[in-house]
Amino acid sequence: MLHRRKFQVLPAPFAVFLNKDKTNYVEPDISVICDEEKLDEKGCYGAPDWVVEIVSPSSRRMDYYIKLFKYRSAGVREYWIVDPIKQRVTVHHFEKEDGEECAYGEEYAYGEEVPVGMFEGFSIKLQ
Predict the structure, then answer these.
(1) C-alpha span between 36 and 38 (Å, rounded)
(2) Domain count of the chain?
(3) How far apart are the first and last CA of the chain?
(4) Beta carbons within 10 angstroms of residue 120's beta carbon
(5) According to the model, what pLDDT value does residue 1 have?
(6) Rounded CA gap, 64 and 18, in Å?
(7) The domain spanning residue 58 has which CATH number?
(8) Where are the alpha helices (DSSP H) in 35-87?
(9) How many CB atoms lie within 10 A of CB 45?
(10) Is it true that the peptide bond before 84 is cis, omega within 30 degrees of 0?
(11) What is the CA radius of gyration of the chain?
């Protein structure tokens, strides 16, 4: 069952200031933010709760390595890497309910139900 929560889904271009400063930012393909106090007209200050990056040939290293480290360090709860070339989704649950951190991503093939860890009972199927 999906519990009702307030959150915003914001597609790129949308600035996310992970360090809460006003100069250094990333632009995730999709950002989900549950704390509306992080938002203003210029972007999000602090970590989104859920980030989705769609890999392109030019962003592969950035999405799989650099942004993975940045998002984990900043406090993003869940990070999805959608790879159309490999037709898979890699899900990193940085924050689990028991406080444990998951070191490795879970992989799903296109066509499989991908559970959204931060919303119990909710999943997405990519085709």
Answers:
(1) 5
(2) 1
(3) 23
(4) 11
(5) 39
(6) 17
(7) 3.90.1570.10
(8) 60-61, 67-74
(9) 18
(10) no
(11) 14
